[in-house]
Amino acid sequence: MSISIAPLFSGSGGNCIYIEGGETGILVDVGCSCTRIEAELGKIGRALSNVRAILVTHEHTDHISDIGSVSRKHDVPVYANEPTWMEIIAKTGEIKKKNMRVIDSSDFYINGLCVQPFNVPHDAARPFGYSVSAGGKKISVMTDIGRATEEALACAEGSGIVLLESNYDVNMLKNSRYPYPLKQRILSSRGHLSNNDAAGAALRLFLSGVRGILLGHISENNNDYSLALKTVSEHLGRNGVVSGRHVALGVAKREGVTGFYAAK
Fold it and tell me: How do strand 137-142 and strand 161-165 relate by DSSP bridges?
């Protein structure tokens, strides 16, 4: 069984990632409208009728804004840990009880897909990253993390593709018009991952066997696609890892489907 990823939206305006193994599709987060998600899935020949589950990373609005309506409209189960569920219910309203799945950090299965949740540091109730495996291949999602912890790196080890946060350039953020408390939040170990930190994480991931990295959740105000790519690519190059030869490196767009990538 092959496994593939299609980032549909990846940024502060909304997040939704499609992962597919065999005939089973899942969404990681639903931070965009049902209509927009359906439109982007259509560009890769898929529909919400392909989706068998929604995995929630955390309860911030750009990750759960339309989760209730998508679940209700398409009768899709939603998976989240208990502290996150308490926040989801408060923010999004009713989700059918039969579609509420309470998980912890133990592995579980959705049809033929093995899902491994892992803890990540972020300013939320109990944020998770996810690794999804099928047919000996694995895809991992590591976004909205203040730092790349040993736990997260170990769980993503050997993935065919990792969606890795590269949120901001430190100098751009420090010189931005953002209020000081917001800057401190983003810079903190429970905030977001900078380009420099993403570069260090990318090297660790490569050394663990990862051969495909998509940089995601790239800030519209404190970063740009080319700078994120340049920072990570140059750091890898200084350590003997050539982007395009040793590792496939790309970026996930903030708005709209980036592509449909199969894990090798």
Answer: parallel
